[in-house]
């Protein structure tokens, strides 16, 4: 066989691309983690998610109380009985086809962690105009307005300096400049931080998060609020995975594991470290050594890192996870499908590359 023939060898048989897709004999090694939120918590929608291939149900305690998420979990259990699809909390049911079944649900509890939140007591949209000033204040008694936003952290003024970048929005971040803003710290005045808004946007909904680019936030990785949720809702439902948000060092994982072991029932719960900033990137090797799995939160990473650098870290991190035999999960894979039924070509390619690299997925 000559070298010219080798150059023309097809890595993929092109004719096969035109053949109809069909289910393979072997199940997919990639799992889909689905976050059950306000628009996906009904029995009907969860059933459709299970039929489409959702493997793990994720409960995000950034919003909603324990009662709210408990109702969602009960809907998930009903949907599993209805569809007879396992959603990789375990419970026993005897109502499927009048025969006893053991239904396994893999449940992931996502902590809030040291997340900065805007305290918005109202539900009216807040318009923010480019080139105007916005005050971030720890005084939570004040009302949110286009010129002032109360936040849940009193140490922001000590953490930032003029010139630092702060991102603000309901989700971090879809890339849509109509729902999130980026700002530059203009002045620190007492406990208040005065920012210059760089783009116009309308903040809608009740949850807005802040991310200060490459600045250490002096808050515990597992705050008391998260511990309360874990010790109550988490224990009650025997959660299988704890998604530890904003993991920054290996010590964060060790402390979380120590806390879980004290609860008894959660001593076997696996900890997935969520890498969301440069601190987690710098300490990635020690975090990987301590954690049971890794979640790459690309929304926040795309703020701390230049967007063109995120994929390089993703490639390197997933390779290291594969070498260590630990699952890797990537987030924000189909943002456009919150509004559209089909993913973009770029999103489909992104998902395909993630699968080929050896990722789990999260939607």
From TrEMBL:
Pathway: Carbohydrate degradation; glycolysis; pyruvate from D-glyceraldehyde 3-phosphate: step 5/5. Its cofactor is K(+). SUPFAM superfamilies: Phosphoenolpyruvate/pyruvate domain, PK beta-barrel domain-like. Keywords: ATP-binding, Glycolysis, Kinase, Magnesium, Metal-binding, Nucleotide-binding, Pyruvate, Transferase. Belongs to the pyruvate kinase family. This is Pyruvate kinase. One of its GO terms (molecular function) is pyruvate kinase activity. Gene3D superfamilies: Phosphoenolpyruvate-binding domains, PK beta-barrel domain-like. Its EC number is 2.7.1.40.
């Amino acid at each position: 066989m000559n070298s010219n023939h080798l150059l023309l060898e097809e890595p993929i048989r092109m004719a096969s691309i035109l053949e109809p897709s069909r289910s393979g004999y072997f199940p997919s090694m990639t799992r889909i983690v689905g976050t059950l939120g306000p628009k996906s918590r009904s029995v009907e929608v969860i059933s459709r998610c299970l039929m489409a291939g959702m493997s793990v149900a994720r409960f995000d305690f950034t919003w909603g109380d324990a009662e709210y998420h408990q109702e969602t979990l009960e809907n998930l259990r009903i949907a599993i009985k209805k569809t007879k699809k396992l959603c990789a909390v375990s419970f026993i049911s005897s109502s499927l086809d009048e025969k006893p079944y053991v239904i396994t649900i893999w449940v992931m509890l996502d902590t809030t962690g040291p997340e900065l939140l805007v305290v918005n007591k109202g539900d009216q949209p807040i318009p923010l105009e480019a080139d105007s000033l916005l005050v971030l204040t720890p005084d939570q008694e004040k009302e949110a307005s286009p010129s002032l936003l109360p936040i849940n952290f009193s140490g922001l003024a000590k953490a930032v300096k003029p010139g630092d970048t702060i991102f603000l929005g309901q989700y971090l971040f879809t890339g849509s400049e109509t729902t999130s803003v980026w700002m530059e710290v203009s002045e620190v005045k007492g406990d208040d931080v005065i920012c210059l808004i760089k783009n116009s946007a309308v903040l809608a909904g009740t949850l807005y998060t802040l991310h200060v680019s490459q600045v250490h936030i002096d808050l515990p990785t597992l705050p008391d609020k998260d511990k309360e949720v874990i010790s109550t809702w988490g224990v009650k439902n025997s959660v299988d995975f704890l998604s530890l948000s904003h993991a920054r060092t290996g010590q964060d994982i060790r402390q979380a594991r120590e806390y879980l072991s004290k609860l008894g029932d959660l001593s076997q719960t696996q900890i997935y470290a969520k890498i969301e900033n440069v601190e987690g990137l710098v300490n990635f090797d020690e975090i990987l050594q301590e954690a049971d799995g890794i979640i790459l939160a690309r929304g926040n990473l795309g703020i701390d890192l230049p967007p063109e650098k995120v994929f390089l870290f993703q490639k390197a991190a997933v390779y290291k996870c594969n070498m260590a035999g630990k699952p890797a999960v990537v987030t924000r894979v189909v943002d456009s499908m919150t509004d559209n039924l089909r993913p973009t070509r770029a999103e489909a390619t992104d998902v395909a590359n993630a699968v080929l690299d050896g990722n789990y997925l999260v939607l």
